[in-house]
Amino acid sequence: MLRNSFSKTRELVVFAMLGALMFSSKIILEFLPNIHMLALFTIVFTVVYGARGLIPIYIYAAILTVYYGFQPWLLIHYYVWLVLWCITMPIPVNMNKKIAVPVYVALGAFHGVVYGFLCALTQVPIYYNTFSVVTVLAYTATGIKWDLIQAAGNAAMCTLAVPLIILLDKLSRKMGIKTRLHD
Predict the structure, then answer these.
(1) Does residue 180 lie in a domain region?
(2) Which of 5, 38, 96, 114 sits most deeply, having the most CB atoms within 10 A of its CB?
(3) Phi and psi based region of residue 33 (left: phi greater than 0; alpha: psi -120 to 50; beta: remaining)
(4) Is 65 inside a domain boundary?
(5) Number of domains in the chain
(6) CA–CA separation, 148 and 127 (whole Å)
(7) Is residue 1 part of a domain?
(8) Phi first, then psi: what are they for 53, rounded to 5°?
């Protein structure tokens, strides 16, 4: 019983550190417009931990909220990464590396392209006091160049997904934390 308690505590501490890593990476790369490692980390945590991969993602969102104070634009961080998590979950975890790299790159790029649309779902009602398909699409269209930049940045970052998945899986198992790759 006590051993199980320590392993759960260890797991929670690791997830908190991973959430802090997500936050730190976002802050460090803020000088680059729409370039960050968040999609990469979301994919890696989902592949390695499955449903438990949501824990560091929501810790990241909570830290972001504490750091900036509650702002309406922060709402997106509570669901855009969930969308990527949902898309990543059904992908087989033990893919051949030659297949996995382009899959994760395409996944990151796709999420970058649809990011503006996902943001529009909450931003349009908050800032424009209306909600219609036309307004959401217009909002999305005005920021498409930024979404394309984010897609390119996500694609570049996601080339690191496979080595990070291997590393995080290995380190997690060494610490006694269960992973999807070796259940």
Answers:
(1) no
(2) 38
(3) beta
(4) yes
(5) 1
(6) 23
(7) no
(8) -65, -20
Long-range contacts from 126-131, C-beta under 8 angstroms, 24+ separation: 126/72, 126/75, 127/72
| 113, 151 contact by CB (below 8 A) | yes
Instruction: Confirm whether 28 is domain-assigned.
Output: yes
Helices (H), 50-89: 54-68, 80-88
Q: Which two tokens stand for residue 85?
A: 């998590």
Please give the single-letter amino acid code of residue 79: Y
Q: Tell me which residue has tokens 């380190």.
A: 171
Burial 150-181 (b: 16+ CB within 10 A, else e): bbbbbbebbebbbebbeebbeebeeeebebbb
Print the domain residue range for 164.
7-174
Which residue's structure tokens are 């390119």?
A: 152
- What angle (nearest 5°) sits at the alpha carbon of residue 12, between those of residues 22 and 95? 65
- Which residue reads 């990011």 in tokens? 115
**Under a CB-based contact definition with an 8 Å cutoff, are residues 29 and 36 in contact?**
yes
Quick one: pLDDT band at residue 8, thresholds 50, 70, 90?
Answer: confident
pLDDT digit string, tens, across residues 99-144: 999 999 999 999 999 999 999 999 999 888 888 999 999 999 999 9
